[in-house]
Structure formats: C-alpha cells, structure tokens
Design a protein that fits this description.
The complex is a heterodimer.
Chain A lengths: L25 H31 L7 H36 L1 H10 L3 H42 L14 H18 L27 H25 L5 H18 L1 H15 L4 H12 L1 H35 L6 H39 L1 H10 L3 H39 L20 H27 L3 H5 L2
Chain B lengths: L9 E12 L6 E12 L3 E5 L6 H8 L7 E6 L2 E2 L5 H11 E4 L11 H5 L1 H5 L6 H13 L15 H14 L4 E5 L7 H18 L3 E4 L3 H4 L4 E6 L2 E7 L3 H25 L1
Chain lengths: 485, 264
C-alpha cells in the first residue's frame, strides 16, 4: 500500500501515469500546441526562405529592410497564433475542471490541498504543452523542408541555398510549451473555489455562471480600444501626407484589437444575442441560443479566437486588394503585371499563414462544444424525457455551433474590412491618383470576393464539423441514464 | 377481443412486464412478471425498498425505457414496440413528469419551462389550454415568478413550476419520482397537497414513486414492490399503517436471512 505523501497531494497511481491524457479536452490541447509550434517553425522557415530568395533576385535588389519587415511580420503572426492558442488552452482547461469538480471535491474532502490540486492541473498543462510543442516542431520542420523543395521546383528557384534545420526553429516550440503551461495555470483558477462539500451528493446544480463584473479589466479594454481608435484615425490622417502613416495605423490596430480581445465579454454577448434572433423562435432555436449565452465568458473568449483569425485573413485580403486597385488606377488603368503577381502571391501566402490562427481557434471551438454537451448530460436527459426528439437535439447542437461561428465570422469580416481599409488608406493616402493627380486621396475599401467566399464556406464547414462529435454524444443520451443519480 | 385500458378504467397498465440487466452470473432481475394498472382519476403511490424495481417500473410505464419482455400501455396506446420518435412525441403530449431534482431547463424562465411541451410541438396553447395554464399558475402561486430563472427560485417553487408544466398538457398520466425528496417538510407538504388536489378536483391520474410513508399517505392507493414483484396493493393508508407495513416486511425479510446465518 503506497505511503501517503507528506505534501497533501494524493499518491499517484503508478499504473497509468499519463492516463489523464485520454480525458476529453487534453487531446485537443495537445493538437492546438502542436499546430502553433508547427506553424512557428514553418513561418520562420518561410520568411527565412523568402528572404533568401529575394536576396538572390536581381529585380528586388537590396532587400535588407524587406528581410527585417518579413521577420517582424513573422514573429507577429506567430505571436497571434500563440495568443489564440493560449486562449483556447485556458478555456479548455477551465472547462475540463468544471467537469472534474466532483472528483476534485472528493480529493479535497479526503485531505488534498487546493494548491496541490491546482499544481497538478498546471503540471498536466506543462506536459500537454511539451508534447504538443515537440510534435509540432518535428512536423513543422518536415513540412518546411518539403515546402522548400516544392517551391524550388514550382517557382524554378531550386538553385537558392537554404538550410531548413536551424536552431531558431526551437524558439516557437519553447514559447508554445511555456504559454500552454501558463494558460493551463490561468484556466485552473477555479480549482481553488471547489469546496469539499461539493463531493457530497445533493449539492445544488450550479449551472448559472455568475457574470462577474470585472470592472478593472473592462476599463482597461475600453481605454485600449479608445487609444487604438485614435491611433488608427491619426494614422489615416497622417497617411494622407506620407505612407509612414501605416505604422501609426498599425499600432492603432494592435491597441484597438487588444482592447476588443480584453473586453470580449462586453462585446460578444450582445452580438451573440442578435445572431440568436435570426435563428427564429422555435424551441430548439431558443434553447440553442440560450446555451451559447449560458457561460458568457467562455463563449465570448472562444468567439474572439475565431474573430481574430477571420479578421486577420480579411484584413490582408482587403488591404492588398485595395493596394492593387490604387496601383492599377494610378498606372492609368493598366495593372502592372509583376507587381500584381507579387502582391497576389504575397496575399495568398499571408492569408494562408494567418488562417492557421483561425484553425487553432476552430479546434478549440469544437472541443468546447463537445465538453459542453458532455457536461450537460442531465439536462439533455431531462429534455429527452420531456419530449425532445433526437432530430430536435441534433438541430439544437448544430444551431449552437452555428451561433458562435456565424457571430465570430461576421464580426471578423466587419473588423477585417475596417482594419484592411485603414491599413491601405494610411499607406496610400499620399499617392497621386487620376484624374486629378494630386494627393491626398481617399480610397474605397476593395473587398475581394474570392477570399470572402472562402471564409464563408469555411465557416459553414467549421459549423458542420464542430457539430459532429457533440451531436453524436448528445443523441446517445437516453432519458433514463441521465436521470439516474 | 382484447379489453382496452379505457374499458378497464386505467390510465396506464403493464402486463407480464420483465426487465433484466446483464447476463449470466451478474444478471439483475429488476422486474419479474409485473402486471398492474394505474387507475384513471386516482393518485397512486408506488413504494418499495431500494432494488425493489419501483423506479424501473415507472421508467417503463412512462415510456422512458423498454422492457425485456411483456407489454405496456399508456391510455389505449400499446407502447411496447414504439420507435424512439413515437415514444418521444407520446411523452411530450400525454405524459407529465415531476422529478426529485433537476426538473427545469436552467436556461429558460418559469413560463418558458411550463410552455416547453407546446413549444417542442411547434404550437401555441389554444385559448382553452391557456386558460387552464393561467388557472394552474395562480393556484400554484407562481404568478409573480413567471419570468424568473430556475436558479432564482426556491426548491419548492421549482417543484411547483414542474407540476404546472406536468399538468399543462392535461396528460393521460403524471409520473412523479420522489417529488418531495429534496424539499423541506413544509414545501413537501404543499407539493403533495397540490398533487392530491389535481386528482381530486380535475380527475388527473398520478403515479408517484416514493419511499416516504408520509408522502404515500396522500395517495388513494398504495402499491408495494419487492424484488421486482408486486407484493401488496392497498387502498388509502395512513402514514402509520404504511410505516408498520414497511417495518413488518423488512423484519420478515430479515428473519429468514438471520436464520440462514445462524444455521450456517
């Protein structure tokens, strides 16, 4: 018989040290960490490779600034991906813990301290982060190598020398592992609120998430958003005189978006409610939209992750399209061929890279919906007993998924168009345009239909995929099973 | 020609109902050839110790579970071979449920919960039904609570909302599973009085599973189950009579066991 540990932590079973990895939510967290880490490796390789290619290209010439710009953008994109991954992981761990409440309460009852429980969760987060980061690093390096070879063949630049395996690739992996650890720690705050009493049966179901008024955080969010908005406006005005306005606008974008992300719980619920109204007033629609609003913090943070991804993709698409339109008009109606191809390729690559963040958020969303269904077994049993058919349950889950994806996508599109236009305007406001050939000029945002169509289709696909596993679990709940204690 | 349940004056019945779980050594015979009917317009209590099969019987009679063998009817409808969808719709329209806990959908307010069966059918209550529901709400003292969410209601109020929902569709039968289990004695007495009044004044058929003699004393008829069989069928009993019976049957069951222990 194992001797009890002195620290107040229960002795771990030696039989299955990593058995907890099979729990719902852990696999998705590993996947998210792997994607971010792979993305980091691929992006660094891509920017390094592009820099090497440009250096060898006679047309571009000296590309010192370009290399720096590429590196900055690269790190920023990785930063965004890691940020989204951190949100997803924190949310996932918070949800997982909500489902483990009874087990944690039991351990607390027996004598484990709250801190040791939280430390255990954080430790699991570190393991998840390390496994994901390593898998991602290996996968990302392999993919980069394949990409370099393919690019050499496809674009006829095979003679460019580029070593894919570089020590700098480890940096994103380390960052991912550490942020996963931190995110798990942040998400596990609820462990401290679990009381031993909750282990005893008959405790009241606390399915209502008290909407905590985080006054300070909301205040900071609004301030950041205001500063960001001012900087954006300033950048646009400045851009009427000089293309350096785009730098001001850039910071404006970062501040305002950070404000939005911090204040997600302020912004998203009203939008969610609005989308809910569109779904109609049938019982299934109402139940689905109420579910999305049941845990406003969770739903908002999840939606913000997808919003980020969609915003970035749309922003690039709109900005580059607008630049193309301006260049075409200023060249007298004829699009300059090399620039157009370059811009299109650049746009395509950027959008693809940025879409990774959207994918990470999507994984998180699917995972959260699944966990949400699992934690609602009793309620689903009740609904089935009262007369909700399996078809109606299916519709409910699908609508709930659609709720969040549609809200996030629409918000992202709107924001992306706004930011993209601001970026293009602040960059090109000083460019003389026909027929007057005098600066300053105002450009209208040009929205390319193809990327938007792809985004809409991707949203629909995401909704369907997100609903598959939760639906299967929800319809499997027999009324009797969930009613038994 | 088979007699229908209506001919027999029954709201629900079962015939030779058997339910077993597991196979081989670990087989559990939850119900063993039970044949019984719940009479229309009566408040029936179903009692028995743990493992007697009373919850299983209720689950099958309410269309929540399928028997291993035997037949079951709700009203005149044979529910034995019905598909999941047909059973679901049947439950929605013709059965009312009041459980011990977790009765209400947390994301809907009280009125939303009461009208849920109608919403699921995609219809609004008719004028007649609406009048009936308004009467129920007033009788149950819920008029000021209609737009409160379950977490804003006390346990007794939640049970009353559940009762309103159960009675709103004028179902063939209301199944109550330990409805006073989570309530303090005052709220519990109120709930039982309301259920008894529904039977007395509106002819609602109610079947209540309980282990509480005080609760069962409100019923017109008390069925006792033991080891998956009906062991007694008594008319209205006082709480003392029910307690005495329960004690006697436990002692009776204990005596042969202790005798067996002494002998071995």
């Amino acid at each position: 018989m194992p001797r009890p540990a002195a620290s107040g932590a229960p002795p771990r079973s030696a039989a299955a040290p990593l058995a907890w990895l099979r729990e719902r939510g852990m696999g998705a967290s590993v996947l998210v960490a792997a994607i971010s880490s792979a993305f980091g490796a691929i992006l660094l390789s891509a920017t390094g490779f592009i820099a090497a290619v440009l250096r060898a290209d006679p047309y571009i010439g000296d590309s010192g600034t370009l290399a720096v710009v590429l590196s900055i953008m690269g790190f920023l994109l990785i930063g965004v991906a890691v940020y989204v991954a951190a949100i997803v992981t924190a949310n996932t761990f918070a949800t997982v813990i909500a489902g483990r409440t009874r087990r944690i309460a039991l351990l607390r009852l027996i004598g484990a301290t709250a801190r040791s429980q939280r430390a255990e969760v954080a430790r699991q987060g570190l393991v998840v982060g390390v496994i994901g980061a390593v898998l991602g690093l290996v996968g990302g390096t392999l993919l980069s190598w394949a990409g370099v070879v393919l690019a050499g063949v496809a674009f006829g630049i095979g003679e460019v020398e580029y070593a894919v395996v570089q020590p700098v690739l480890v940096v994103p992996a380390v960052v991912v592992a550490l942020t996963t650890w931190a995110a798990a720690w942040a998400g596990s705050r609820r462990v401290l609120t679990v009381t031993p009493l909750q282990a005893l049966g008959g405790s009241v179901e606390a399915s209502h998430d008290a909407f905590t008024r985080k006054g300070a955080r909301n205040g900071a969010a609004i301030t950041l958003f205001a500063i960001g908005g001012a900087l954006l406006a300033g950048g646009i005005v400045f851009g009427l005189v000089s293309p350096l306005g785009v730098i001001v606008a850039f910071f404006g974008g970062i501040f305002s978006f950070t404000g939005l992300a911090l204040g997600a719980t302020l912004v998203m619920p009203p939008v969610l409610r609005l989308v809910g109204k569109v779904f109609g007033s049938s019982a299934t629609a109402r139940l689905a939209s109420e579910n999305a609003l049941r845990y406003p913090e969770r739903s908002s943070r999840m939606a913000i992750g997808v919003v980020m991804g969609v915003t970035l993709v749309t922003m690039f698409a709109v900005a580059l399209e607008t630049v193309k339109v301006v260049l075409t008009t200023s060249a007298g109606g004829e699009p300059p061929q090399e620039m157009t191809t370059l811009l299109d390729t650049f746009a395509g690559i950027m959008m693809g890279l940025v879409a990774v963040s959207a994918v990470i958020a999507a994984v998180g969303l699917v995972n959260l919906l699944t966990i949400g269904v699992v934690q609602r077994r009793r309620e689903l049993g009740l609904l089935r007993a009262l007369g909700v058919s399996t078809g109606q349950v299916r519709r409910m889950v699908l609508l709930e998924a659609a709720h969040i994806t549609i809200t996030a996508t629409v918000t992202g599109l709107v924001l992306g168009i706004a930011y993209g236009w601001a970026g293009a305007q602040s960059l090109l406001g000083a460019v003389p345009m026909p027929p007057s050939f005098s600066a300053p000029t105002l450009v209208a945002p040009a929205v390319p239909w193809l990327p938007v169509a792809i985004i809409v289709v991707a949203t629909a696909a995401l909704t369907l995929v997100a609903a598959v596993v939760p639906t299967r679990l929800a319809t499997r709940v027999a009324p009797v099973e969930a009613l038994a204690d | 020609m088979e007699l229908s349940s209506t001919d027999l004056g029954l709201a629900a019945r079962v015939q030779q109902l058997t339910k077993t779980y597991g196979t081989g050594e670990s087989t559990v015979h939850a119900l063993d050839g039970v044949s019984v009917g719940i009479r229309r317009g009566e408040f029936t209590a179903i009692m028995g110790p743990s493992g007697s099969g009373k919850s299983t019987l209720m689950h099958i009679m309410a269309g929540l579970d399928a028997p291993s063998s035997g037949r079951a009817w709700i009203g005149d409808t044979d529910i034995t071979g019905l598909s999941d969808l047909e059973l679901t719709i049947l439950r929605r329209r013709r059965v009312g449920f009041v459980f011990q806990a977790f009765n209400l959908v947390p994301t809907l307010d009280a009125l939303g919960n009461i009208l849920l069966p109608f919403d699921l059918d995609g219809r609004r209550p008719t004028a007649l039904e609406r009048a009936r529901i308004d009467g129920l709400v007033e009788r149950l003292g819920l008029s000021s609570r209609l737009n409160h969410r379950p977490h804003q209601l006390s346990g007794g109020q939640q049970q009353r909302v559940a009762i309103a929902r159960a009675l709103a569709t004028s179902p063939d039968l209301v199944f109550a599973d330990e409805p006073t289990g989570n309530l303090d004695s005052r709220s519990g007495r109120e709930v039982l009085a309301l259920l008894a009044a529904a039977t007395r004044e509106h002819g609602q058929s109610i079947a209540m599973v309980t282990h509480d003699p005080v609760a069962a004393s409100h019923a017109d008829r008390v069925l006792f189950l033991g080891d998956g069989r009906i062991v007694a069928d008594k008319p209205r009993q006082s709480a003392e009579e029910i307690s005495a019976y329960m004690l006697a049957s436990e002692l009776g069951a204990a005596a042969p066991a202790t005798a067996g222990m002494v002998a071995s």
